[in-house]
């Protein structure tokens, strides 16, 4: 039964193996995406705002466009939280006993991962474009250039890590559930004993220890055909 799985995980109630969990491709991609989001957020938040020597107020390093920095910070922070949420779901996923709930979780993984891949594509194009049109006189000291390029680079890499997560989730969805082990109404085995229906025994299956005339006697009982017989004294 070890080969029987539903949406990439075995039967509910199994022991959690951290080594096996960390070796799974989807776990590796989630951790890599998590690290990329930290780099992007950190680069823009720490070194993404600069000013000219004669200015006090700081502006976004990407063409002095505040929206570019806000987009990168927002995407980095939200991707960080999303990766943590999916890692927690992956840990809990083998304990989900309902196949319907597992299917919903896998479908959510496909959709959300594909959405993040698209958003990182938009972010990469946006940041790269704003960096390309940035004027040198806006940053004469060339501060934060490495951080800006790092944010653009890891935004590009994040497109493929999230797309890979969506692809692996789709592969799990195609696997589906093994009907030999799971059913759509599968519940936890500990709850089966309490909810098991009782089997009733029909009285027609029992016969009297006689020669088989019990059935005939029961058929003729109380039919009223004999009536009342008068006895003469």
TrEMBL record:
Membrane topology: Multi-pass membrane protein
Cellular component, GO annotation: neuromuscular junction; synaptic vesicle membrane
Family matches, as InterPro entries: Marvel (IPR008253), Synaptogyrin (IPR016579)
Domain MARVEL positions: 21-174
Segments forming a coiled coil: none
PROSITE patterns: MARVEL
Pfam families referenced in this protein's UniProt entry, alphabetically: MARVEL
Transmembrane segments: 31-51, 71-93, 105-131
Localization: Membrane
Keyword Ligase: no
Region feature Disordered, mapped onto this chain: 193-233
Assigned protein family: Belongs to the synaptogyrin family.
Protein name: Synaptogyrin
């Amino acid at each position: 039964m070890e080969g029987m799985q539903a949406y990439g995980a075995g039967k509910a109630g199994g022991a959690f193996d951290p080594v096996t969990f960390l070796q799974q491709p989807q776990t590796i991609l989630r951790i890599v995406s998590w690290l990329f989001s930290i780099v992007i957020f950190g680069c823009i938040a720490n070194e993404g705002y600069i000013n000219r020597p004669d200015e006090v107020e700081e502006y976004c390093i990407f063409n002095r466009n505040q929206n570019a920095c806000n987009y990168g910070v927002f995407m980095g922070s939200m991707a960080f939280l999303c990766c943590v949420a999916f890692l927690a779901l992956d840990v809990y996923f083998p304990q989900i006993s309902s196949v319907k709930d597992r299917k919903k979780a896998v479908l959510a993984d496909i959709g959300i991962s594909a959405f993040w891949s698209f958003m990182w594509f938009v972010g990469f194009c946006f940041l790269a474009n704003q960096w390309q049109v940035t004027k040198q006189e806006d940053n004469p000291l060339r501060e934060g250039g490495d951080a800006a390029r790092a944010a653009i680079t890891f935004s590009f890499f994040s497109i493929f890590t999230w797309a890979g997560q969506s692809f692996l989730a789709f592969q799990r969805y195609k696997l589906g559930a093994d009907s030999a082990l799971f059913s759509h109404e599968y519940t936890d085995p500990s709850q089966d004993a309490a909810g098991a229906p009782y089997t009733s025994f029909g009285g027609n299956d029992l016969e009297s220890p006689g020669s088989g005339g019990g059935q005939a006697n029961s058929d003729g009982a109380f039919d009223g055909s004999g009536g009342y017989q008068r006895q003469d004294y």
